[in-house]
Amino acid sequence: MDLLPSQDQLDLIAAASDFLESRLPIEGIRQRADDPSAVDPDAWREGAELGLLTLGLDEEYGGSGRLLDDEALLFATLAEHLAPGPYLASTLGARVAAQCGDLPLATAIGEGSTLVGLAELRGDGCIGPDSIKGTFDLIDHAGAAYLLVASRQGTALVRATQFPDIGDLPSADPGSRLATATVDAATVSHWLPAETDPLWLRGTVLAAAGLAGLANALTTMSTEHAKLRVQFGRPIGVHQAIKHACADMAVAADASRSQMLFAAVCVQSGREDAAFQAYAAKAVATKAAIGNGAATIQVHGGMGYTYEHNAHLYLKRAHLLAHLFGEPAEVLAELLDQGAPQ
Amino acid sequence: MDLDFTDEQVEFRDEVRTWLAENKPREQRPDDAAGIREYDLGWQRTQWDGGWAGIAWPTEYGGGGLSLTQQLIWYEEYAAQGLPGIDATFVGLNHAGPTLMTRASEEQRAFHLPRILRGEAVWCQGFSEPDAGSDLASLRTRAVIDGDELVINGQKIWTSFANIADYQELLVRTDATGSKHEGITWAICDMRLPGIDVRPITTIEGGAEFCEVFYDDVRIPLSSVVGTIGDGWSVAMSTLSFERGTAFTANQVRLAKIVEDLIDFARDHLGPDGRRPAIADDQIARRLAEVRAAVASLRAMTYVGICDAMRTDTPGPRGSMLKLVYADLCKEIAALGMDIVGADALRRTSRWEPNGWVGYYYYAFSQSIGGGTSEIQRNIIGERMLGLPR
Ligand SMILES: Cc1cc2nc3c(=O)[nH]c(=O)nc-3n(C[C@H](O)[C@H](O)[C@H](O)COP(=O)(O)OP(=O)(O)OC[C@H]3O[C@@H](n4cnc5c(N)ncnc54)[C@H](O)[C@@H]3O)c2cc1C
User: Fold this and answer.
1) Is residue B390 less than 8 Å (CB to CB) from chain A?
2) CA–CA separation, A39 vs B198, rounded Å?
3) In degrees rounded to 5, what are phi and psi of residue A141?
4) DSSP code of B162?
5) Which of B139, B203, B369 to mutate to test the pocket of ligand 1 (most atoms within 8 A of CB)?
6) Which of A130, A160, A281, B362 could make a disulfide contact with A208, Cβ separation 3.0–4.6 Å?
């Protein structure tokens, strides 16, 4: 039993962090805010070259063949740096292509030349092996050739051209782009049934990993501010109202990180309670990220209420991730439906 | 990363499971003082006879010398079978014993450690005083050296199981001239000594194992001092670090069973609308799922903590996080239990009986007070983990 990152994993996190800090600084989100796409194409390709999209992909498809806990650590790191772009959909998209035996597509996605956006069914509809139907939120669809449409039964890749009437919507998260599209019977080009590979659970774990990363970054941001900001002649962190808020953030971040790693190992190894652990991870991490986001704004005072400060970018990303791979209420209902954990 | 257990660990789990199933106490725990003493010591004796006493203790002191992973397995199996928490024997096994191991003399260890393990002695912890709770170091119970004895005068409070204890780990002030952390002495107090007056305090849960202890010229031989005179603070801290290490693992693990029991209960018990089971109520269902998720994460944190401890060998402030999460969660689960129970909340029950949710609710309040309050844990996390200014 081991739930601590290995040296190898620590190196991986450090390399990803270095890249993100130098090539995708958070300021870029504000700079691109009016651009149709949140993605800087050059940085996207460089990230792909570094292997950010193919960490968990089998080597025969050009990936690194690493396990889900590595990917989870990477997604936590991406979120800590608010990396913009459809990393989640593209990573899972490459996996669908690979499992369907489409080497050229898997390679193209992995190299960063083909983007995959995410389509989330909102309301009634259906997602099946041949076609999909319903109204979808499209997340980061700009420039994407495919959209990933996931359900508990299986995951589809659908060509972007299958969504004829895309209406752009203002995105609450300045680091992402949002649109809506309704389709009657869009053709599925690749279908991966859950029995072959539980992609829904992988997506759930990676969303949880992102949320855990946000919760962690927010803790650090608040703690640093609490040490530096002086009022009444002393750092505000001497006051328990602030100190305890930071302590609670640290605990929430630790809980969500521990659980998402636990879940990653369970999903990876196909443990019987994998779904239980994945849903628990998403539920805990959602609460942690949103709670820490709210607390961080408060700890920063007036500055925390400004567009210029990063706190809201984290909170907004948290709300975005919270609505991927199941609505928060659905995740809880699914969790309660599971048998007792192993 | 992995959650795999080795073949030996899997075998060990089977062995534990079988032994517990065959040997666990079957009767409900009594609620009178004498009955509790007999029950808890009896169960300890059974564990001793079966070779399972003091799983966390090193073998040189007669314990099981189990690895942290084995201890985790033991606690998981222990909880899964719904076994009683370690209660009257807790201080002996998890505070006094470990302190004696690290700080006591050869004779003190040889006399006391086997008695704890064999279920022959109950220990209690005489630390808190009316004016020294969170600020423990401000304690004032006086001890004056007279020949080869310490003469004690003063009062302790909140001493769990003082009414049935044989011995007490007693913190006294032998010198009031220096800083408050200096001049404290840690002594073994025989609870049958003349001059000791134990008065039970009834708790909100209805239990009376919680006591005030008065000392009127109580004479303790100097040979009962552990460590040196005036060095009691550091002796006491060696206990607390054990407490924040793995001693709470059992509680954390047991919480998972409690949540599963509550979910089962909510499937049977009529809900707020008086027609459908409680679990059909959206709010209750949502809260059940939330505590289920939170308990899962506490377990994951416990696992991470164990991995951490195996790597670093020191119980850091991480134990404070676990204690804090545990206490908050325990209260959240208990409050949810009350809402599921509905109007039956008017009926007093004991947490020791099946579905004793009302008793559990009132008991849960103790968990964020005893062993260091949740506010103190937040101070520790803020200052020692996050480095925030004091
Ligand atoms: C079930 C139970 C069993 C116990 N068993 C034992 C035992 O066997 N032996 C023993 O010696 N003691 C025992 N105790 C006592 C326990 O250790 C103390 O109750 C605890 O340390 C708090 O002290 P206090 O009760 O004096 O509260 P106080 O210290 O007076 O605290 C009152 C409130 O003020 C808050 N507070 C105090 N200081 C601070 C601060 N610096 N920052 C923020 N908030 C603060 C506390 O968190 C609390 O909410 C037990 C307590 C309980 C509930």
Assistant:
1) yes
2) 72
3) -85, -15
4) G
5) B369
6) A281
pTM to 2 decimal places: 0.96
Residue pLDDT, tens place only, A164-199: 899 999 999 999 999 999 999 999 999 999 999 999
Cβ–Cβ gap A258/B325 under 8 Å? no
Q: Which of B256, B226, B211, B247 is nearest to B79 (CA)?
A: B256
- Please give the Cα distance from B81 to A163 (Å, whole number): 55
- Are the beta carbons of A229 and A236 closer than 8 angstroms? yes
**Which residues are CB-contacts of B158 (< 8 A; sequence separation ≥ 6)?**
B128, B133, B201, B210, B211, B370
CATH architecture group of domain B245-385 = Up-down Bundle (1.20)
Strands B167-173 and B123-126 come out as parallel
Residues of B in contact with A266 (CB under 8 A): 3
CATH number of A7-193: 1.10.540.10
What pairs with residue B124 in β-bridges? B168
How far apart (Å, rounded) are the C-alpha atoms in residues B138 and B132? 5
What phi-psi label fits residue A225: left (phi over 0), alpha (psi between -120 and 50 degrees) or beta?
A: alpha
Measured between alpha carbons, how far is B295 from A247 in angstroms, rounded to an integer?
19
At residue B240, the pLDDT reads 60
Among A137, A140, A112, CA closest to A29: A140
The Cα A49–Cα A111 span in angstroms is 6
Closest CA to ligand 1's atom 35: B375
Domain chopping of chain A, boundaries: 7-193, 199-337
Q: Is the pLDDT of residue B137 over 70?
A: yes
Chain centre to alpha carbon of residue A204: 9
Structure tokens, B79 = 């909880």
- Helix residue ranges per DSSP H, chain B: 7-23, 33-49, 68-80, 90, 97-103, 106-117, 232-243, 249-268, 282-312, 318-341, 357-364, 374-380
Residue with tokens 């990152």: A5
What single string gives the DSSP state of each residue in B51-114? T-TTTTS-GGGTS----HHHHHHHHHHHHHTTPPP--TTHIIIIIIHHHHHHHS-HHHHHHHHH
Mean pLDDT for chain B overall: 93
- According to DSSP, the β-strands at A144-150 and A115-127 are parallel
For ligand 1, is residue B370 a contact (CB within 6 Å)? yes
Q: Distance between CA atoms of A123 and A127, rounded to whole angstroms?
A: 12
Task: Give the closest residue to B90 by CA, choosing from B269, B225, B246.
Answer: B246
- For chain A, which ranges sit under pLDDT 70? none
How close B289 comes to chain A (CA, Å)?
5
Task: Let me know: does B199 contact B214? Beta carbons within 8 Å.
Answer: yes
Which CATH number is B124-230 given?
2.40.110.10
| Residues in contact with B83: Cβ distance below 8 Å, sequence separation at least 6, in sequence order | B20, B24, B25
pLDDT at position B316 over 80: no
CATH topology of domain A199-337: Butyryl-CoA Dehydrogenase, subunit A; domain 3 (1.20.140)
Range(s) within chain B of domains with CATH label 2.40.110.10: 124-230
Read off the amino acid at residue B47.
Q
pLDDT at B270 over 70: yes
Q: Which residues 207-266 of B have a C-beta within 8 angstroms of A?
A: 256, 260, 263
Task: Kindly report the number of other CB atoms within 10 A of residue B4's CB atom.
Answer: 13
A contacts of B308 (beta carbons < 8 Å):
4
Q: Are B139 and B184 in contact (CB under 8 A)?
A: yes
Give the pair of three-digit tokens for residue A36: 């149709």
Determine the Cα–Cα distance for residues B68 and B258; give it in Å rounded to an integer. Answer: 23
Distances (CA, A) of B126 to A326, B146, B236, B248: 52, 21, 11, 20
